[in-house]
Amino acid sequence: MDFEEIYREYFKEVYLFIESLSHDEIIAEEITQEGFFKALKAIEKFDGSKDIREWLFTIAKNTYFTHYKIKKRQIDSDGVEESSMEVQIVKHLMNEEETFMVHQFLHSMNEPYKEVFSLRTFGGLPFEKIGIQNKLLNSTMMQFTLI
Predict the structure, then answer these.
(1) What is the DSSP string of 3-49?
(2) How many CA atoms lie within 13 A of 73 on its CB side?
(3) Element (H or E) spanning 129, and its range?
């Protein structure tokens, strides 16, 4: 059986298998195509000791899990960046009206709250460093974690 016949005969089964894993038609299509491409490159190594269908499913499954791991790393790293306080504040401060409101709020705060807020929000300092810088006790600094 030549590879074109293998492709025609098993594509739909492999596709449905990957779709059942990914629950996404587009990803299933991409992974199935990539899996068949890998199978084409490795067809000379296929010795026939396994069923061809099993061999194709294994390639597709491994391709899917590799894709999933890469995608997860990208999502995790994007999530870390997006969840950082500095990024969120910069996004909010891009709006002039919100910037003015934060500025008014900051000036209405009493010390040491004003300085702690400024150092934490704009300087990105952790509370521990703010406390050391201001020679405040950690217990006092814990009050600011509630703000």
Answers:
(1) HHHHHHHHHHHHHHHHHHHH--HHHHHHHHHHHHHHHHHHGGG--SS
(2) 5
(3) helix 127-133
The answer to whether the CB of 128 falls within 8 A of the CB of 114 is no
- Count, in order, helices (H) and strands (E) of the chain: 8, 0
> What are the pLDDT digits (tens) for 28-85?
999 999 999 999 999 888 888 888 999 999 999 999 999 888 877 666 555 555 555 5
pLDDT in tens, 78-103: 555 555 555 555 555 555 566 666 66
Cα distance between residue 100 and residue 85, in whole Å: 19
pLDDT of residue 110: 73
Measure the CA angle with vertex 76, ends 80 and 123; round to 5°.
Answer: 10
* CA pair distance 146, 123, nearest whole angstrom: 18
Q: Quick check: 145 and 137 in contact, CB under 8 A?
A: no
